User: Which sequence fits this backbone?
């Protein structure tokens, strides 16, 4: 056998291995043996790195598989539709100005911190920007999407900026490492929230009021029948199909008639597909179609997201991830900048620490981490974390895209 030929080449077999891996990971979350482990290592990390290990040991390979392309072309835009479809602007508005202010300033901190870290890294070690002919900023731009929205936004930007697989592996390590360290710090300070609020003269009573309003206005999930499931999938994949159709027209038109816009990836079909899918979901969320979220849109979106993450993991070669140590400095500066922006925003409006922690994780961690942080204050507060994280899903791709363009400018 050729040493570069993977052990498993049949995509049906590879898909079975990936889904089996996901099943084992999530089955283990229900066992006491792994309960403590998953408090340190999140399951989503294993969904990404175990396929990466398979690839690193040449069991499977993205080079001989079409699964990653199928997932990115079909499942990713549908996933974005389902995530944005359920956004409730009225409920988010009821969170109040302080929560939204801290959240948006935190996102701004991500957009500033990434380019700042890249600039400092360039001064210290200019060679780290373009090792082996690969542009590092492309991989870092995907972190910007992850830290202003979530994994779906990160993968959307991966399709837009197309970093090399080894670059994406390196930056993914930075993403996970510093995001989890920051999550751990916030969880530590949850128990000290009353002391922090007292020192900042923050009014924490607003949390109880918001908790009651969210609980009163929360949507009731139903068990959809097969007709409703077909309608749900038709909407998601239908919008994906329309997005592909329109992108096939717009992208070549921009490339042929406005070549200067190529620098902004506006001639990329992937850019238009993810943008149109996200915008379509946001528009539908303002109509009666938002009830589709009660039929399981978010659950389907999450399912697709994990499959996408597993196929992305196929592209990784884990052992290449630590060949660019300057990236760790960039990540440290990046997360510290976000933390400073978030804390200053909370200080300015005297927001309770709850808004600081949940607003930050709605940016950096996404739905899972934001809801975990919110529930750490009180289980009934978890929906507030979900609401802010959904808002992050709505803006993450666009914030990450702008940040990526700034990074590209700094790199040149």
Assistant:
């Amino acid at each position: 056998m050729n040493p570069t030929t993977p052990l498993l080449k049949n995509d049906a077999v590879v898909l079975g291995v990936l889904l089996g891996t996901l099943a084992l990971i999530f089955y283990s979350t229900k066992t006491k043996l792994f309960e403590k482990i998953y408090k340190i290592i999140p399951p989503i990390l294993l969904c990404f790195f175990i396929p990466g290990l398979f690839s690193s040991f040449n069991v499977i390979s993205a080079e001989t598989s079409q699964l990653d392309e199928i997932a990115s072309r079909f499942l990713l835009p549908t996933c974005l539709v389902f995530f944005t479809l359920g956004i409730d602007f009225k409920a988010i508005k009821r969170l109040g100005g302080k929560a939204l202010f801290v959240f948006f300033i935190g996102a701004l901190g991500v957009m500033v911190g990434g380019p700042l870290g890249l600039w400092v890294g360039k001064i210290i070690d200019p060679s780290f920007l373009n090792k082996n002919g690969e542009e590092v900023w492309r991989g870092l731009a995907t972190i910007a999407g992850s830290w202003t929205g979530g994994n779906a936004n990160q993968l959307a930007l991966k399709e837009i900026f197309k970093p090399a697989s080894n670059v994406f592996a390196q930056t993914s390590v930075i993403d996970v490492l510093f995001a989890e360290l920051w999550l751990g710090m916030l969880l530590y300070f949850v128990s000290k929230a009353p002391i922090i609020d007292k020192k900042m003269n923050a009014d924490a009573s607003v949390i109880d009021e918001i908790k009651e309003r969210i609980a009163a206005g929360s949507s009731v999930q139903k068990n959809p029948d097969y007709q409703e499931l077909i309608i749900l999938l038709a909407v998601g994949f239908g919008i994906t199909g329309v997005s592909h159709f329109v992108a096939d027209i717009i992208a070549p038109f921009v490339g042929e008639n406005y070549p200067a816009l190529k620098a902004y990836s506006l001639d990329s079909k992937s850019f238009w597909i993810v943008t149109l899918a996200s915008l379509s979901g946001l528009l539908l969320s303002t109509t009666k179609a938002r009830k589709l979220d009660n039929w399981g849109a978010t659950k389907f979106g999450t399912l697709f997201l994990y499959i996408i993450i597993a196929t992305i993991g196929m592209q990784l070669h884990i052992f290449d991830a630590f060949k660019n140590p300057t990236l760790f400095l960039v990540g440290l500066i990046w997360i510290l900048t976000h933390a400073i922006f978030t804390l200053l925003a909370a200080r300015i409006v005297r927001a309770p620490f709850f808004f600081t922690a949940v607003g930050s994780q709605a940016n950096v961690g996404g739905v899972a981490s934001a809801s975990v942080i919110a529930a750490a204050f009180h289980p009934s507060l978890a929906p507030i974390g979900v609401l802010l994280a959904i808002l992050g899903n709505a803006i993450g791709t666009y914030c990450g895209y702008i940040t990526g363009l700034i990074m590209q400018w700094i790199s040149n």
User: Anything to note?
Assistant: Residues 226-257 form the longest helix (32 residues). The mean pLDDT is 83.
